[in-house]
């Protein structure tokens, strides 16, 4: 081991672990040398209607990329997440729901989950939903969100969950892309003591989505919302009319399970498509081993169901394992900065999984909020969404984990379905800031930006993956070309993650962040191209370029350079107007942090914007701009520097 700070697994973690350090090495070697044998065995963690005989059939060769796992297997995921647990776990709690308002909660047993999901599935069927149809879900963090996705899985419909903070325009774009004819929403959501008008956003979105003919509305706050005759129905009214039981639909392993839209470096968000068999094997296995999950553990992932973390590690992974999963409607700061820790103590949470941005925000509020709570139930802490800086890691370890709990930093993506590089808490010593080692079956490689394979252990470059793993996305919905060109063209023969990384002398991976034009703002992926096209849609904007800059809490902030139409003056009022405009076009998560009015942008003679220069100025690091002589008009740089917005 190197001389960097290293935390060995505690004696307790070693004693209880599913996988020891020696077993990890042997299992890992087998997983890459004999994937067929390894995954045939792992597939047994799932109940198959017809077990697979064909295990792996995958090719990363551009332009014939094709990924199939367990391709002749037949199963149903909702039966795996619910029905099969009933003999042992009918009265065990499957979901603990903690509401935004302190004091509101619910405990949903596996029996009740079964009843609710069966009923929900029959409501969807009664509304005309058939196997293979796409169902858009725009719900707050209430149990109905889990029922809705599991109901889709039960009848073989493909869900497309949209985070309940996205704007009407973003909703309609996603509805139209996958041609869904039905939307499930609620009257309103609650977050941080405020209400969010969800039905209203859907009504507005549907003006641009004429293909939708049904809206199922879950009553949540009880707000009075207009209901369009013939189109909108209350969930409860329909639930009263349908039978209680719904047989799970037999699904092929490669049938689509869900679409989740995510931002890329160009164009509109892509519909990341996940399928059935490989996905459930992957999320169930990673959830069990990375969190060292055992029967009786109370597990809490603070993500929202609108992101992949919520799909894989609030709903599918934990429930496939018969776990008790806590679902939280609120935010870390409401009513105050001790909310997370109150909830941990109240529900006796053993495993807690959150994002660096939340940790940094709570760090900023001061350690006393966490120090007041002993949290004796806690055993393991997890981190996800962006690189965790060592200071935040140490704060988490000390003030939340009381130097007693391990920390697992899990690197993965919407595209990967589940964990890719992560410690196993009883097997792999951790280093603050490193996601450590690959999970079984994952073969990370480091390439130079030009694509040369870095074979020595110590290396730095772009992070690619050499071969397929079962949880991998299969395509971009409706656009396999875009799937291949985004992930398999630039570095042929590999899956390109879009991240940069460093591998140290111990073979540990340190993710350094995106190498493409994707920002990571508070753990949310935002394409600079999306913010730019929102800005240029404003009548006063002629041109816009968006880059990221380091932000203490969000990880990255959104920095916008805006060239205005001739005759328009850039003032603070216009900045506010543009900020609100982007919030309305995309959603509050894409709100610009800094706006600089720039009379000109740095362009090459062929008209290409030199983003490298814009990034440096945004980082307040203009001493090292590099060669600017190829610019069409080098003098614009002086103006950019003079009016820079991020002064250290
Ligand atoms: C991007 C994927 C994975 C679920 C949540 C985000 C960054 C994610 C880590 C980590 C360093 C991380 C990467 C990745 N990222 N986890 N533990 N360490 N970076 O999913 O929206 O698909 O974003 O988030 O840059 O590419 P996503």
Automatic annotation (TrEMBL):
GO biological processes:
acetyl-CoA biosynthetic process from acetate
Catalyzed reactions per annotation: acetate + ATP + CoA = acetyl-CoA + AMP + diphosphate
* Named cofactor requirement(s): Mg(2+)
User: Which residues are modified to N6-acetyllysine?
Assistant: 608
E.C. number(s) listed in UniProt: 6.2.1.1
- According to the entry, every stretch annotated as the AMP-dependent synthetase/ligase domain falls at 85-468
Nucleotide-binding is among the record's keywords: yes
Q: Name one GO cellular component term.
A: cytosol
Against PANTHER family, the record matches this protein to: ACETYL-COENZYME A SYNTHETASE, ACETYL-COENZYME A SYNTHETASE 1
Give the similarity note.
Answer: Belongs to the ATP-dependent AMP-binding enzyme family.
Q: What is this protein called?
A: Acetyl-coenzyme A synthetase
Name the encoding gene, please.
acs
